[in-house]
Design goal:
Bound molecules: pyridoxal-5'-phosphate
CATH architecture of the largest domain: 3-Layer(aba) Sandwich
Oligomer: single chain
CATH superfamily of the largest domain: Type I PLP-dependent aspartate aminotransferase-like (Major domain)
Strand order of the largest sheet: 1-9-8-7-4-2-3
Strand content: 5-15%
Distance between the termini: 12 Å
Mean pLDDT: 97
Number of helices: 10
Shape: globular
């Protein structure tokens, strides 16, 4: 029966990609990538064709985030998961305090916990669907939290805890879609396959002078640091628009395309507004339907880049299956959350008009399933 539900074309989004990561890559960026198929792809990452793309991405991000004096854009290979280990070796001096309120915050906390060279961290936990809050603590030299917890759709504001500890924010899904004042963070890091509409394989960190100084001091301290995870090496290479080892060149290019497009379309403020519009459409629709409720009860914590909607009286997995059969993909919830839910990314690349169409598609499907 599920297979037989055909959503009328006029109710379908123009682009049916709503995955939280990897996420929609704009068609224009793919066309642009094809255009450099010979001049950039398949050429040396130590020569100007590729280095120019790395430089374009670094400058574009500095612009998009209005980086304060002395902040630097640092790039390395391996995604956000690799950056957690980079931070374990190169940013945490001894004791960290970490917020864990979903899958990704919990993973970074786990990486810090098992590091034999670090002191026992403080892990502040929150129930999925809620947040966890950092607070000033003696002896803590790094405070870390997700800016947006992609697994649950909970976002917290970027704020400093105290004057001593470095602030680390995992912005893999928040980047370019949620507001941030960079003076309130020392390391705003992400992989580019979610909020930045690119592909995976890289980590990018926007680092304050204090974070750079910390990385340099730890590197000089004699601590054992695997070369691949050496933040000082990454900083040195980034200053030359390079990476320590071979980067994912297409990922660099697609990220640079998206950052340039966002800058041309009004910068971070405009992108933040666009995401708020898309997410607002989904939340107010859910609130107006008997069968749907926003999962995150506290409105202040509801993410404008990943909207999680619980369903009642209808099987969300069936809805997702019908949507997929109709070309609307990746609305399934985070697998380990185990809820009767849809998770819908409303990143800057997603057209707010498509978010609205999605609600019409879901209405159509629910009417036929229930
Ligand atoms: C997806 C995600 C990660 C993991 O990113 P990888 O590039 O796959 O390592 C980490 N943190 C957050 C918040 C994420 O959404």
């Amino acid at each position: 029966m599920t297979d037989q539900i055909t959503i009328p074309a006029e109710l379908l989004p123009a682009d049916g990609r709503f995955g939280s990561g990897p996420s929609k890559v704009p068609a224009e960026a793919m066309t642009a990538l094809a255009g450099v198929g010979r001049s950039v792809m398949g050429t040396s990452h130590r020569k100007s064709a590729v280095k120019d793309q790395v430089g374009r991405l670094r400058r574009g991000l500095a612009d998009l985030f209005s980086l304060p004096e002395g902040y630097e854009v640092v790039i390395g290979v391996g995604g956000t998961t690799a950056f957690w280990e980079v931070a374990v070796f190169g940013l945490v001096e001894d004791r960290a305090q970490l917020a864990s309120f979903g899958e990704f915050g919990s993973k970074f906390a786990g990486a810090v916990k098992i590091a034999p060279h670090l002191g026992e961290p403080t892990v502040v936990t929150g129930e999925p669907g809620g947040a966890a809050y950092l607070s000033a603590e003696d002896g803590v030299d790094v405070y870390a939290t997700p800016h947006n917890e992609t697994s649950t759709g909970v976002a917290v504001p970027v704020e400093r805890v105290d004057a001593e500890g470095l602030m680390l924010h995992d912005a893999t899904s928040a980047v370019a879609g949620l507001p941030v004042d960079m003076s309130r963070t020392d390391c705003y890091y992400f992989a580019p396959q979610k909020g930045l509409a690119s592909d995976g394989g890289l980590w990018i960190a926007l680092m304050s002078p204090a974070a750079i100084e910390r990385a340099e001091r730890i590197a000089a301290s004699g601590r054992y640091i695997p070369a691949f995870l050496d933040l000082k090496t990454a900083i040195d290479n980034s200053r030359k628009d390079q990476t320590y080892n071979t980067p994912a060149v297409a990922t660099v290019f697609l990220a640079a395309e998206q950052v340039d497009a966002l800058n041309a379309a009004g910068g971070l403020d405009a992108a933040v507004k666009r995401c708020a519009e898309s997410a607002g459409t989904l939340y107010s629709w859910a609130a107006s339907r008997e069968f749907a409720t926003p999962y995150v009860a506290d409105e202040k914590l509801r993410s404008n880049v990943v909207a999680t909607i619980d369903f009642d009286g209808v099987d969300a997995a069936e809805i997702a299956k019908v949507l997929r059969a109709n070309g609307v993909v990746d609305t399934e919830p985070y697998r380990k959350l185990g809820r009767n839910q849809l998770r819908i990314a409303t990143y800057p690349a997603v057209d707010p008009a498509d978010a609205a169409k999605l609600t019409e598609s879901i209405d159509y499907v629910v009417e036929r399933l229930s």
